[in-house]
Model the fold of this input.
Amino acid sequence: MAVATTAADVVSKDALVVNSPDCKTAVTAADVESRVSAEDKHYVPVLELFRGYWSGLLLQMGYEAWIGASFYLGYSWLPSFFAQYAGLSMMLTLWMVLTCMVLFTIVVPVAGYLSDRGQPRVTATICICVVAGAASVPMFLAFRTQNLAACWLLQAASLAMTGYTMGILPAICSSIYPAGVRISGFNLGYNLGMTVFGGLTPLIMTAIQTSTGSIFVGPGLWMTGMAVISVACSVLLIKKYPLTNKFE
Done:
């Protein structure tokens, strides 16, 4: 279609006039802006996340319950606990944390490698949480013996299991969300879960000891409760988001 344009057809900045054999249309700058605004709405991932994927956020937070609690237990709470109730020097407890940190760092990529080889990820987390939940109270009772080897080995075992779950956590939790909200969903869910269940665990365990006088059993029961929450949310993740447990 040929279009003939004269000087009268194009006017100043306030309007654009196009004459053709088929149409004559006047488009102002306001018209253009309104059309662009209507067609290209600003996309806000966080709003979309809360609108359509809040259940995924809640499940991710619950899934991280034992993981976050165990992480802060091993790195933050146990050193002072050992110094106060197991008769170990603070310097020794720090060396214990350092060696456990090395083990933790080794286990994380091993877990990632096995996950990439096709290991069912959420199923592995369930198995670890079941073992950890069942062993939590006996572990704290073993701490009461004030035996250095028992304290060191149990702390190392706990953080090794935590490291394994941390190694597969990104692959699991990123599978909950579609591409448009994946980064926002994973990061928000991760930080909320770690804050609520992990960051508050040292405070809550100390409060349990202070209020009940249960130095060993009370904290162990708290960790068992965290494991139960993680197992329950893991089962729901498999049911609601099957890709979290599959290798692609």
